[in-house]
Amino acid sequence: MGKVLGLCAVVLACITIGSALQCFQCKFTIFNIPCHTSVVPCEGGQVCATIHGRAAGQKLIKRKNCVPQDKCNKNDTESFLSIKYVTSYECCEGDLCNSAILPSAHISLPVLLAIGSTWFLGLL
Predict the structure, then answer these.
(1) Are the C-beta atoms of 91 and 69 separated by less than 8 Å?
(2) Within 10 A of 34 (CB to CB), how many other CB atoms are there?
(3) Exposed, middle or buried, 24 (CB in 10 Å: 0-12/13-18/19+)?
(4) Helix/strand/coil (H/E/C) assignment for every residue in the chain
C-alpha cells in the first residue's frame, strides 16, 4: 500500500511539472523601493519579466509580470501624467526567475515531492 501511495505521489509530481510557467508579479514600484509580490501563472507564449521604466536617464519605475515573449529585449515609449518614459523588458523563462534570488535557488514543490517519494520508497 505504501509503495502505491509513493508511486502516485511521483506521478502527480511529474504531471505538475508540466504546468504553466509561474512568475512573480509586482504591479508598480518607484525608485527601486521593495514591492509586494505575488505569484501568477503565465499564459501560453508568455515569459517572466522585470520591466524598468526610465526617464531622464534614471530608473524610476519597476514592475514584474508575465509578458509576451516578443517584448523581450525591446524598448517601448509610454507616458504617465504627460511624462514620457522608456520601458525595457528583461525576460527569463524559468519558474519564478524574475526575482532577486538566483533561479537555481528555487526548488519547486513537484521536484521536492518526487525526491521525497523516491527516498520514502527506498525505506520500504
Answers:
(1) yes
(2) 8
(3) buried
(4) CHHHHHHHHHHHHHHHHCCCCEEEEEEEEECCCCCCCEEEECCCCEEEEEEEEEECCEEEEEEEEEEEHHHCCCEEEEEECCEEEEEEEEEECCCCCCCCCCHHHCCCHHHHHHHHHHHHHHHC
pLDDT tens digit sequence for 79-124: 878 888 899 999 999 999 998 543 333 444 454 455 656 655 666 6
User: Strands 38-41 and 46-55, how do they pair?
Assistant: unpaired
Average pLDDT for residues 30-52, to the nearest whole number?
93
Amino acid at 76: D
Nearest to 78 by CA among 98, 60, 95: 60
Rounded to whole angstroms, the Cα distance separating 8 from 55 reads 53
What single-letter amino acid sits at 111? V
How much is the pTM?
0.62
